[in-house]
């Protein structure tokens, strides 16, 4: 076994944070600790853990995970778990590369040969979805996701919901499926109306119909609609997920591998969800390392349903980087008939272009989350 020699991190455009771990024998692995809008906070956590874990056995992934969780006293939350994810994913990559096998072989092996995927259209202020959906169809996608609404008031005019229905109908008329992301920006007085309005047009799912702190409201909404309810990007551990499963208010769980402590916790959360007949559709509007990590887990899960991809997502626009950046074989993300093939090669199955990572990380700015201000000057949910 090789002891951890270095833990490095790289802030890169458009809004990602990569981690590289190297052991004393020169073996290395890559992880992703991206937490959109909170890069500096995660970097601070990684600084502390880099000092702590130098000299630990790199093969002892679970021991390092448990040390991080159980000896810190304060635990969980997006910053802590994103930093842990970067380390965990990198350690899995290092170990599997050293053994010259894909990570999925260390998780029990694959149960499928390709993965169903979807991509974003529309942006934060969705418009012109027909053209964008047609472009996605030409890329090989059969499913997309879009924000259901722009910013919206706590109690707004019902007419504010009409465009969401029309956009869903437009995509369905192209023979594609569409998930509608409420983004936690729609409050209960409007969310119940929007779910009812969308229901006859059969969205693939409605995502974050309410903020996750309103579990009772989500449970009520789940009893009022036949639309599958998806959520999970703001739940950061199996302990966060558990009450939603017990309440029976989620149909599709969307854990983010870069926000939940990595591959180790993703596997555990998926197993929990399986016992409640809940599907897994990992959240991943992030970089190629996070997506590769998702894919390594996805192919081992009986309850996997569909994988989010950030290819051409609006957050990447103007940054000079996209999902196809930072990897030596961008064709690994090619989509055909709504699916991508399993990644080939050991570890994560991708080869990171380290020279590009190091170059673009120089003076990279931290991404700042946008926000919405309403017509009265009030802050609205983004």
TrEMBL record:
Pfam families: MR_MLE_C (PF13378), MR_MLE_N (PF02746). Transmembrane segments: none annotated. InterPro entries: DgoD-like, Enolase-like_C_sf, Enolase-like_N, Enolase_C-like, Galactonate_deHydtase, Mandel_Rmase/mucon_lact_enz_CS, Mandelate_racemase_C, Mandelate_racemase_N_dom. One of its GO terms (biological process) is amino acid catabolic process. CDD domains: D-galactonate_dehydratase (cd03325). Residues 126-228 form the Mandelate racemase/muconate lactonizing enzyme C-terminal domain. The keyword Ribonucleoprotein does not apply. The keyword Metal-binding applies. GO terms for molecular function: galactonate dehydratase activity; metal ion binding. Signal peptide: none annotated. SMART domains: MR_MLE. Its cofactor is Mg(2+). This is Mandelate racemase/muconate lactonizing protein-like protein. Keywords: Lyase, Magnesium, Metal-binding.
């Amino acid at each position: 076994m090789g002891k951890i020699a270095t833990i490095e991190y790289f802030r890169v455009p458009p809004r990602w944070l990569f981690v590289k771990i190297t052991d004393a024998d020169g073996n290395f692995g890559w992880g992703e600790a991206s937490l959109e809008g909170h890069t500096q906070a995660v970097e601070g956590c990684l600084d502390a853990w880099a000092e702590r874990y130098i000299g630990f056995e790199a093969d002892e992934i679970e021991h390092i995970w448990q040390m991080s969780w159980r000896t810190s006293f304060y635990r969980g939350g997006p910053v802590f778990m994103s930093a842990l994810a970067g380390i965990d994913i990198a350690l899995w990559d290092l170990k599997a590369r050293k053994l010259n096998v894909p990570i999925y072989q260390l998780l029990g092996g694959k149960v499928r040969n390709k993965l169903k995927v979807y991509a974003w259209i529309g942006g934060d202020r969705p418009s012109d979805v027909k053209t964008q959906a047609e472009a996605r169809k030409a890329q090989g996608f059969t499913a997309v996701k879009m924000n259901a609404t722009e910013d919206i008031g706590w109690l707004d005019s019902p007419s504010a919901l009409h465009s969401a229905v029309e956009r869903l109908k437009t995509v369905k008329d192209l023979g594609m499926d569409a998930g509608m992301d409420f983004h936690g920006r729609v409050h209960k007085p409007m969310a119940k109306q929007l779910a009812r309005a969308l229901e006859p047009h059969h969205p693939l799912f409605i995502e974050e119909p309410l903020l996750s702190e309103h579990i009772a409201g989500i449970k009520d909404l789940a009893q009022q609609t036949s639309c599958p309810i998806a959520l999970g990007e703001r739940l950061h551990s199996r302990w966060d997920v558990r009450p939603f499963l017990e309440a029976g208010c989620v149909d599709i769980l969307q854990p983010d591998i870069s926000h939940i402590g990595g591959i180790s916790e993703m596997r555990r959360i998926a197993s929990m969800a399986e016992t409640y007949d809940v599907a897994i559709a990992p959240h991943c509007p992030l970089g190629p390392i996070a997506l590769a990590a998702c894919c390594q887990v996805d192919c081992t899960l009986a309850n996997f349903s569909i994988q989010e991809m950030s290819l051409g997502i609006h957050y990447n626009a103007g940054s000079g980087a996209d999902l196809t950046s930072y990897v030596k074989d961008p064709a690994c993300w090619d989509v055909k008939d709504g699916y991508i093939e399993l990644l080939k090669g050991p570890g994560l199955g991708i080869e990171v272009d380290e020279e590009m990572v190091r170059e673009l990380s120089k003076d990279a700015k931290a991404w700042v989350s946008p926000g919405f201000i309403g017509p009265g000057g009030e802050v609205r949910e983004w």
